[in-house]
Design goal:
Blueprint: H1 3-16, E1 21-25, E2 29-30, H2 70-73, H3 76-84, E3 87-90, E4 97-102, H4 105-114, E5 119-122, E6 127-132, E7 138-142, E8 145-148, E9 154-155, H5 169-174, H6 205-220, H7 226-241, H8 249-261, H9 266-279
Antiparallel strand pairs: 1-2, 1-3, 3-9, 4-6, 4-8, 5-6, 7-8
């Protein structure tokens, strides 16, 4: 049996069990998007919840290409990908699973002391601990520890050993990071209220809190075009609350933390905030 046949057979076996699969190329990474899907100009695949479905028959869009459809897995364009594939990957969140990726011996030792036992799969440098239940994926929750579940992929390295247990609160808690210090964030906005506007209505705590909470929710629920969503949300917050002096560093830090949790860097957050202020003439 060739490597291609082995990968394809494994993929079909997993798909039949309800585990979405995709091929990995050299470097243990997904195949790049085809030309018509480059930079997601196609709108992305339906399960990425982007604006517009992608009809591309190939394994494009990284983790979002994962499928359980045998007709897709065995199609001509996928077969060509399997011929170049070096491994099989799967989408843990799509199968209702969470993988705690322990990248070294120290991380494994920590897990054995702090996490409930579950199905364990040996890796090149450490172990995958697989739990039943899905959550958001987060990298580097602690040294040598990544969480792979929704919107992520993991290499298939075999069924492992042990009995899979329910996703514990201890793992979910790992994903709740303390907000990063907003060291280079803009200072608290102290632009005085416009002349004749009277008492600032935003000083009603509930009004301002609702606005910030809605902004955090909008950023958190973004499924695509995250940077654009962050900028537009910052613009909306500044438009509604930025000219009265009510926004403080605490409010700005909350917005930055929500954006950073979606993968935005501190520099991107700062640039988006600055650009939004400039657009509003602040």
């Amino acid at each position: 049996m060739t490597a291609t046949d082995s990968h394809l057979r494994t993929a079909l076996h997993l798909a039949a069990a309800g585990v979405p699969v995709l091929p990995l190329r050299v470097g243990k990474v997904p195949f790049g998007n085809c030309r018509r899907c480059a930079d997601n100009v196609c709108g992305g695949r339906p399960n990425m919840k982007t604006a517009g479905p992608c009809a591309c028959p190939g394994p494009c869009h990284g983790w979002a290409a994962a499928t359980t459809d045998p007709d897709v897995i065995e199609s001509g364009v996928w077969r060509r990908a399997w011929m170049r594939a070096t491994a099989v990957a799967y989408h843990p969140g799509g199968a209702g699973l969470t993988v705690v990726d322990l990248d070294n011996a120290d991380a494994v030792t920590w897990a054995r002391k702090n996490l409930p036992a579950t199905q364990t799969v040996p890796t090149t440098r450490g172990e995958h601990w697989v739990y039943l239940g899905s959550m958001r994926s987060v990298n580097a929750v602690r040294p040598g520890v990544d969480i792979k579940s929704t919107m992520s992929y993991a290499r298939w390295l075999g069924p492992g050993t042990g009995t899979m247990t329910a996703l514990p609160e201890a793992v979910r808690t790992l994903a709740v990071k303390e907000p990063a210090p907003v060291q280079s964030a803009p200072q608290a906005i102290t632009v005085p209220a416009q002349a004749g506007s009277g008492e600032c209505r935003h000083r009603t705590p509930a009004y301002l809190e609702r606005g910030i909470a809605m902004a955090e929710q909008r950023i958190t629920e973004a499924r695509s075009m995250v940077h654009t969503t962050v900028y537009r949300t910052f613009l909306a917050v500044l438009s509604g609350h930025g000219r009265c002096g009510c926004l403080t560093e605490v409010h700005v830090a909350r917005l930055f933390a929500a954006a950073q949790a979606k993968g935005e860097s501190l520099r991107h957050c700062t640039d988006a905030w600055t650009n939004a202020r400039t657009a509003l003439g602040m």
